[in-house]
Design a protein that fits this description.
This protein is α/β, with parallel strands linked by helices. The chain has helices spanning 13-28, 85-94, 134-142, and strands at 7-10, 31-35, 41-46, 49-56, 77-81, 98-105, 113-119, 125-131. Strands 1-4-3-2 form a 4-stranded mixed β-sheet, with helices on one face. The longest helix has 16 residues, at 13-28. Mean pLDDT is 81; it is low at 138-148.
């Protein structure tokens, strides 16, 4: 039984499906439990809990009507904890996300919190977050720099 999971109503079902189908397994260990790129519905789970569901907006007419001219309204934001914000952010951009805010430490939001924000192909805002020791991150990233 799913206690709570977000459902995104999308006008670009195929592109949004491909985006999440590529990233949710890699970043969260989610598996697709229902649906395909043809739509109109798809969902992903981690274990027995729902993580995300997509529904083509036309399936909701007249309850929800698309208004592509208005752009993102940010009434919903997805939040996912990932092992490494920088790696996850790069993966999202490589799969078609638009950058909203690059990776940054956010101690004002929580001890050792690091976040980045992207927009999926539909324009939905997604926060990637991790909590880690800042020294651990400095050590790990310095190994990636030339001369270290």
């Amino acid at each position: 039984m799913d206690a709570l999971h977000p459902r995104l109503l999308t006008a670009r079902f195929d592109a949004t499906f491909r985006f999440y189908d590529a990233l949710l397994p890699a970043l969260l260990g989610a598996t697709r439990s229902r649906g395909a790129a043809e739509g109109p519905y798809a969902s992903w789970d981690v274990g027995d809990q729902g993580v995300l569901a997509l529904l083509d907006r036309t399936a909701m007419t007249p309850a929800a009507t698309p208004d592509a001219a208005s752009g993102p309204d940010d009434r919903t934001m997805l939040v996912s904890r990932v092992p490494d914000v920088d790696t996850a952010y790069a993966a999202c951009l490589a799969h078609g996300a638009a950058p909203a805010a690059p990776p940054a430490d956010r101690p004002e939001w929580g001890p050792t919190l690091r976040t980045a924000h992207v927009r999926d192909p539909e324009g939905n805002l997604w926060e990637l977050q991790s909590y880690e020791d800042g020294q651990e991150r400095v050590s790990r990233h310095s190994e990636e720099l030339p001369g270290h």
